[in-house]
Write a structure and sequence with these properties.
With 282 residues, the chain is an alpha+beta fold. It has 11 helices and 11 strands.
Amino acid sequence: MKLFLRDDIVALWGDRDPFDQAAEQEGEIFRAREGRRTLRFAGNSRSYFLKYHGGIGWKEIFKNLTQGKLPVLGAMDEVVAIDAVRGAGLDTMTIAAYGSRGRNPASVESFIVTDDLVGTLSLEDLGERWVKDPQALPPTFKRALIERVGTIARTMHGAGINHRDFYLAHFLMRDEDAVANNADGPLYLIDLHRSQVRSQVPRRWRIKDLGGLYFSTARFGMTHRDLLRFIRSYSGLPLRQALADDNIWSGARREAEKIYRRYFEVEPKLPLQFNEHPGKDI
């Protein structure tokens, strides 16, 4: 068994078994399926996020494997990923508690509690503001954010971490930085429960992350110049040298196009663009 409870969680949960408390904790539910619950709860004048895993069963494990997906077996993967992201010098969530018990991968019980990143918004939400009011987007701020995200992606992959849900929605910035058009403040990388940590990220997983990120920009008017700026920032190389590794960028484009076709059921144009949701009603 693994267990860590920060002092404020100890004070909040008292003498109750922490696994029972995590399983029964009340709050604002964001997800509840496949043996998992994600919720926000409050106590002692603080706000937290809890992810509880009660075991997904062998049937769900085999279903994921036959679909070519790696199943999420418990909360400890996210604990490891948060530690790795923080160790790489990047902004991310702060762990308040975690626990894991059991040996059977189909029934292991686990949980993680993180501090709620209050007073933040995602880069996806920020982009939606710009869609509604294009004049609210200073070009210098947009360019600085593109370079910042590219640097974060390079640092993450360089540290042996691939995200597997690498979208703009999983970058959070402080509200005051968004209002002030400040790209130098903290940019928190969140939702790491599917992340993998190794000594080196295989190329296929780098491509999947980059393709997912590219897809998530489609609504926000990215230009070829924007894409080149990201490539230069991600590679850390002069642009001509960065573009010499065409396999990774063409692979990322194909991955983004694949997600686009699956999601909208229409053929994408490059750079990926859409104004309203095309294709199927979502």
